[in-house]
Known about the structure:
Elements: E1 2-6, E2 9-11, E3 17-24, E4 33-38, E5 44-50, E6 56-58, E7 66-71, E8 76-81, E9 90-96, E10 112-113, E11 117-121
Parallel strand pairs: 2-11
Antiparallel strand pairs: 1-3, 3-8, 4-5, 4-9, 5-6, 7-8, 9-10, 9-11
Amino acid sequence: VQLVESGGGLAQPGGSLRLSCAASGFTFSSLDMSWARQAPGKELEWVSGITSNGDTDYADSVKGRFTISRDNAKNTLYLQMSSLKPEDTSLYYCVTSFLPIYRLYNLDAYDDWGQGTHVTVSA
Length: 123
């Protein structure tokens, strides 16, 4: 299993970024996927998830601003981030698991993680 995130960088408050996660080594279309993040000195936080069927869910902190999607033909997971805030500054991870994920927001269920991509929101 390989998960490679990209698309992070510096954005201004109110700006946008799109993160990508290129997946390989498994049947991407059959697994639920999520994005998680960790800000410096803070705990890991689940951000958003998408099931193999395309159902989505979001943390309250990003609902209405972020959109998760997947392109099974390209084996790629996306996170479109808009109306960015300084508190969105974090290391963002793409995560998945071969085991059943009963609740997308439960980070303990994920055992495959990418290396992360940094997002900094600052003027």
